């Protein structure tokens, strides 16, 4: 619109001979932005090559050949960088190079970005793993001299540009915002009546969505980082570092004494499920707090109190304790908001028999997430909620109305809800009180609404283990990621594999596999063999994995068998997929 107004003004003022120069300038600016996108993409692919084919490859070779450090460490550091590299090196960069070669005939980039932008969602996995990857690099640089030597040798090479591994690993985190900025500039320079305007606009929306996908992972990391800060603030004595915990508010507040009304400095920490009432600890270095009371959000009431001498006071009443507090109104509002949004509804607990989960479908305790075994960690049902838990997490008994008020085995959470108070510390076993390692806490991944899920036997080439049976899921909302569970009811996945860049094929004679209906997926550093229970299941998995490996998202709105039959057995090329 601005360009058209300017052209109209120039015509009315008698400067029509300058219009071609102005139009040429606009076209040149658009070309320059597209060319900058290409050049930055080439540099970015070179950086990805360095990460995947040099750093990762050499570390993995050392881990497999000499076992100087575990292969899992290398995989934990580089996450899905191989899939990201394959996508940019095989798809996005060639498409941009071809388009810039034919720019005079087809001056546009919006259609390319519109087709490939949805696959940038894979960056969420990388960003989510970034902090842990940095920790692993720092830990193993100190722990393994061979690990450190390989990193330093590569960093001294000219292609590294005197930059550290950590610096190179930061590049993918910053890449999607760079796409967004370039595309915004491109749209700003592009006339609204240009052929590429609508495609570029749609591309920007998709890239913004991908950026939000990464930003969501960043926000999740930020929430976990806040939990860790609170964990340290409490001296590591409170088990709060859990993906299900959400820190809503924390801060200093004054507690009013019930005896004489004097105020005392206290610290409140509000989570989505409980309020921690803390008191300062005397320390020479750094301030720490001890938890004086834990008040469940469920059943808590918050009310403002009026006092001429004590403004901004409110009363918190819970099952465990009542507190009269004085402080900022925002904290009171946060408490009230948390109560109104609390999804906990325990009114039916114990009044009707739960639907029990099959024991064989769970390999981990649904409370402490410790693996079951037949000797020291046996399975038990909580008779109140139906969850499968270990003996240590269900060593409590509570009376249940549906069972004529008889005492039944229940888990610790149901015991606290039904009895109204938590178990005494003396009744808790050392296992129940044990603080789990932060690395043991993993986010659970729902297997519902999946593109495909079933039991398969699997074995990693060079992994040193034989065939193992597991439950495999490709979620509909993450169709480019394969999740591996020990059983369908497990609350966390054992492992996830980003699928883009993997090739799917039948095993070769040299693989020497004895199982029937076998197939494999392969990428530069990883080969995994699978075995299905039948030929039809083998065909379905090979088809879905092949499409995911090429970056073709499957949108399944009905049973997977019907969807695959309608689409046919031939796999469409990527150019036709979007």
From TrEMBL:
It holds the Pfam family PH. It comes from the Eukaryota. Residues 449-550 form the PH domain. Residues 29-217 form the DH domain. GO terms for molecular function: guanyl-nucleotide exchange factor activity; zinc ion binding. Residues 1-16 form the signal peptide. This is FYVE, RhoGEF and PH domain containing 1. It comes from Denticeps clupeoides (denticle herring). The lineage of its organism: Eukaryota, Metazoa, Chordata, Craniata, Vertebrata. The gene is FGD1.
